[in-house]
Specification:
alpha/beta, eight-stranded parallel barrel, two-stranded antiparallel ribbon, 11 helices, 16% strand, globular
């Protein structure tokens, strides 16, 4: 097997059948286990229908019980005010001290639309275009406070420098946001934006366009390394055409896994190494059939093999999710504009 010294990124989904008497303790243990394996981040899905816990709340509970693992809940942008999306994700970044991301989700069903009663369900292409606009305005709202906007001067009674707060004045296809945010700029500047370009929602080209334009991390569900590599190449080329640096776009192959034994765990390491060596992806987002079982085999079996082959780090070099991913902290667009004027 060809071996590369280029480390791969590794993340895992915590979704699965939940039949635990103490769900909070269950998810905390999973988060701590993933952190022991030096994984980049964990994800947790969410939707407006069906039983389940609020993904943002669950990962906010994991935050104080962990130190390094990135926390990426799904946040549905359809039927949700973009201002509230921005504030909720920003709060998770503060609670976790810079380890938050968010997986952009959409809603396309009549049942979900009926829960809100504000508008009818829209086709996937439309809601994915809207999701891209939400990702755009969320980043603007996170920038609406400059990093040194807080004064906290008790003597003068001034909490904030109003000249360093900015209106975003954003108008999208279905919403408008004036701003500024009610929450100071997050520790990471902008929490990491994750978009599944091929998964739920069947967004097609609109989901791929949103990913190329606004995502820091793109998930690609593929059956083989050739399909994953082709998707990665197309996403990077589209990002370049949109004026982005394609090297700042991390593409992870999202794969289902079932691990019943340490043979299985070593076999997974072989598969991930082969795909990575072929340039199929920058890393992997694994979707366990049974997180409690599969994550243990992953951390105790697959991870040591990848580390032995110099494909996975042995420790976290930094503290924030952006540092785990090798992504810089973004400059504040409004501060740059003010300095340039």
């Amino acid at each position: 097997m060809p071996v590369t010294q280029r480390p791969l990124h590794l993340a895992v989904a915590l979704d699965g059948p939940l039949q635990h008497p103490d769900p909070a303790a269950h998810f905390v243990r999973l988060g701590q286990l993933a952190e022991r394996g030096t994984l980049d981040f964990v994800t947790l899905g969410d939707s407006f229908t069906g039983p389940g816990l609020d993904a943002l709340a669950v990962l906010a509970r994991i935050a104080p019980a962990t130190d390094r693992i990135g926390l990426v809940p799904t946040v549905t942008t359809t039927h949700t005010e973009p201002f509230h999306v921005s504030t909720a994700v920003s709060t998770l970044d503060w609670v976790s001290r810079g380890r938050a991301g968010w997986a952009v989700g959409v809603s396309t069903t009549d049942a979900e639309a009926a829960l809100f009663g504000r508008r009818d369900a829209a086709p996937p292409a439309d809601v994915w275009r809207e999701a891209g606009e939400v990702a755009d305005v969320a980043a603007r709202l996170w920038d609406s406070w400059e990093d040194d906007a807080e004064i906290r001067d008790r003597a003068s009674g001034r909490f904030v420098d109003r000249d360093k707060l900015h209106y975003v004045d954003f108008t999208g296809s279905t919403f408008s946001v004036r701003g500024p945010s009610i929450v100071p700029r997050p520790p990471q500047g902008r929490p990491v934006t994750v978009i599944d370009a091929t998964g739920d929602g069947d967004g097609g080209p609109a989901a791929e366009e949103a990913a190329a334009a606004y995502a820091d991390v793109v998930l690609v569900r593929a059956e083989d390394p050739q399909a994953a590599g082709a998707a990665r190449t197309a996403l990077r080329e589209r990002a370049r055409a949109l004026g982005r640096n394609p090297d700042r776009l991390i593409v992870l192959a999202s794969l289902p896994v079932e691990l019943y034994s340490s043979g299985d765990a070593v076999g997974l390491a072989d598969l991930l190494g082969d795909w990575h060596a072929d340039g199929a992806a920058d890393g992997f987002h694994l979707r366990p059939a049974d997180p409690a079982r599969d994550l243990a085999h992953l951390v105790d079996g697959t991870v040591p093999v990848l580390q032995h082959r110099c494909l996975l780090r042995r420790f976290y070099p930094g503290a924030t999710l952006r540092e785990h991913l090798g992504l810089p902290r973004p400059a504040n667009r409004y501060a740059l504009a003010r300095e340039a004027s």
